[in-house]
Amino acid sequence: MAPKSSNDNRDGRRRRSSAVYRPPKPLPKRHEEPNRTTETPRYKPPNRYLKEIRHYQKTESLLIPATSFGRLVREVATSITRSRDIRFQGKALKALQEASEAYIVGLFEDSYLCALHSKRVTLMAKDLRLAYRIRGDMSSMGL
């Protein structure tokens, strides 16, 4: 019989290793700073929304795309007059867009005040209806 080695079992059979040896991971260096120039800062949800609100308050550009707004104006104009050959100047479309965006922003401000009055933060359709009614804008009550 062969001499016993340290890997032999009682029966004389060799033991099979069930675990694979892996060297330990090196510890991170304490004074090493991660490269922050490539990472974009992450904001928690409330801060992200507030940052977005501040961004849109600073911008003076229009929020609705001009092509989509122009298409909508032409569609409404053709449905009213039933004629296909209506043309608009660029300045006229821009003036219409600025006026409509100002109206929408004012309406949302009023409806948000209605939501705050009812001790809510979330804007609901009933707040928009109430803002319409308070403003006396009865033509848009079909909301």
Automatic annotation (TrEMBL):
InterPro entries referenced in this protein's UniProt entry, alphabetically: H2A/H2B/H3, Histone-fold, Histone_H3/CENP-A
GO molecular function: DNA binding; protein heterodimerization activity; structural constituent of chromatin
Biased composition regions of type Basic and acidic residues, renumbered to the chain: 29-42
First-listed, main subcellular location of the protein, grouped into a coarse class: nucleus
CDD domains from the UniProt entry: HFD_H3 (cd22911)
Keyword DNA-binding in record: yes
Entry GO CC: nucleosome; nucleus
Keywords assigned by UniProt, alphabetized: Chromosome, DNA-binding, Nucleosome core, Nucleus
Protein localization: Chromosome; Nucleus
DNA-binding is among the record's keywords: yes
SMART domains on file: H3
Start and end residues of each Core Histone H2A/H2B/H3 domain: 48-134
Organism domain of life: Eukaryota
Location of region: Disordered: 1-45
Family the UniProt entry places it in: Belongs to the histone H3 family.
PANTHER family noted in UniProt: HISTONE H3.2
Name of the protein in question: Histone H3.3 type b
